[in-house]
Structure to design on (142 residues):
């Protein structure tokens, strides 16, 4: 079974800053993410405008993370957008979530994964959409 990581948790995995809780998740599940979570993390690395992802990181630390993003390990599955696109549209309309939320719910459903989000970014809309598609959702402390 896969653990579908949001951008915060993906950052922690790639930077090797695993909290005890994230370590436990990854001991039992293969890591996966979505295209949009991957994109948001890459954008944060490139722009670093003081956000919660990498804004407070040094330029060197961001460059190191950028190199890891460019060489994303094959062990981290990225749910294919072409497979998810139609289902994302359905989820976005029915559950009134953002494109990012719709992709996360569709990917969790497609992969049979648990969507794992940083507990500081927990949202009721995405939580409801994930439950509606029959997937699991959990928050992870950092």
């Amino acid at each position: 079974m896969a653990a579908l990581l949001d951008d915060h948790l993906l950052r922690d995995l790639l930077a090797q800053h695993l909290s005890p809780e994230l370590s436990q998740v990854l001991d039992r599940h293969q890591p996966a993410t979505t295209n949009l979570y991957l994109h948001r993390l890459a954008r944060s690395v490139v722009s670093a405008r003081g956000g919660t992802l990498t804004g407070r990181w040094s330029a060197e630390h961001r460059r190191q993370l950028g190199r890891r993003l460019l060489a994303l390990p094959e062990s981290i599955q990225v749910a294919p957008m072409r497979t998810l696109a139609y289902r994302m549209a359905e989820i976005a309309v029915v559950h009134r979530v953002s494109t990012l939320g719709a992709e996360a719910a569709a990917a969790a459903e497609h992969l049979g994964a648990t969507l794992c989000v940083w507990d500081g970014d927990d949202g009721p809309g995405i939580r409801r959409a994930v439950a509606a598609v029959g997937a699991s959702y959990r928050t992870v402390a950092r």
